[in-house]
Design brief:
183 residues, alpha+beta, five-stranded mixed beta sheet, two-stranded antiparallel sheet, 11 strands
């Protein structure tokens, strides 16, 4: 039995919208006020993030990342330039992945993936962006862009470098902020 998240009903506060390619021919959604960031659904009949709310969430990410790691917002925006965000209400199972502490897992369900330094996949879990792994996956992209080899798949583990406790705390802080803003 599949559990359907609570994004099936719509109100102005929701950050998620129903997508149907038979009614909306624009498959790729350009995210406003970003450097060419594009979102697209994984399936024809699926859910997507509201473009304006996704833009706001990314702007908050850039601001918070810049402040936390004492780098310019322009540099963070440059690292996100041209990012493709694929979204779906359907979770994925992958052959292997790492948990937050670097422990390797076999055949886990995942709610987000950094597929490359310019493409992520994010599961839409509920009617709000803060419940998704969006911010987590943006961290992987930034790390991948900085080291050019990987996005630190084992997170705070010891096999790959880049991810620190500071990154994990940043995700929580941004998601708390998105929660307070109802995004």
């Amino acid at each position: 039995m599949m559990v359907i998240p609570s994004c099936t009903s719509y109100s102005k506060k929701h950050s998620v919208e129903k997508y149907d390619c038979t009614k909306d021919q624009e498959i790729e959604k350009i995210i406003p006020a970003t450097p060419g960031i594009i979102m697209h659904p994984e399936r024809c009949d699926d859910y997507i993030f509201n473009k304006q709310k996704l833009s706001k969430a990314i702007h908050i990410f850039v601001e918070e990342y810049s402040n936390t790691f004492e780098t310019s917002e322009l540099l963070v925006w440059e690292m996100l330039r041209g990012l493709r965000i694929e979204v779906s209400i359907i979770p994925k199972i992958v052959p292997s992945a790492y948990d937050k502490n670097g422990k390797k897992l076999k055949n886990p369900y995942v709610s987000g993936l950094a597929l490359s330094k310019s493409q992520i996949w994010v599961e839409i879990k509920t009617s709000q962006i803060w419940t998704s792994s969006l911010i987590h996956e943006l961290i992987h992209v930034i790390i991948w862009k900085l080291n050019d080899v990987h996005g630190d798949p084992d997170h705070e583990g010891k096999q790959f470098s880049g991810w620190t406790k500071k990154h994990s705390k940043l995700i929580k802080r941004i998601n708390d902020r998105l929660f307070r803003l109802d995004i």
